[in-house]
């Protein structure tokens, strides 16, 4: 499968706890942090939940 790069572009302050936990599960802890993950349905679902906080590059 292909890999995707996920970059956090907005802060998680004032976000619901579930969105904060989703960012931590993706491995994003700070603004401008970048992680790479496989393009699986589980990861894409997590990205969909926090799409307003991250940018995805294929």
From TrEMBL:
Pfam family, one: Ribosomal_L30
A GO cellular-component term linked to this record: cytosolic large ribosomal subunit
Alphabetized GO MF terms: structural constituent of ribosome
Keyword Transcription regulation: no
InterPro entries tied to this protein: Ribo_uL30_ferredoxin-like_sf (IPR036919), Ribosomal_uL30_bac-type (IPR005996), Ribosomal_uL30_ferredoxin-like (IPR016082)
Keywords, alphabetical: Ribonucleoprotein, Ribosomal protein
Gene3D superfamilies: Ribosomal protein L30, ferredoxin-like fold domain
Oligomer and partners: Part of the 50S ribosomal subunit.
Family: Belongs to the universal ribosomal protein uL30 family.
UniProt cross-references to NCBIfam families, sorted A to Z: rpmD_bact (TIGR01308)
Record protein name field: Large ribosomal subunit protein uL30
Source organism of this protein record: Paludibacter jiangxiensis
């Amino acid at each position: 499968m292909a890999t995707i790069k996920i970059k956090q572009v907005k802060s998680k302050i004032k976000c619901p706890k579930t969105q904060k936990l989703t960012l931590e599960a993706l491995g994003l802890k700070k603004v401008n942090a970048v992680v790479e993950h496989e393009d699986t349905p589980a990861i894409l679902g997590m990205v969909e939940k926090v799409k307003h906080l991250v940018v995805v590059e294929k």
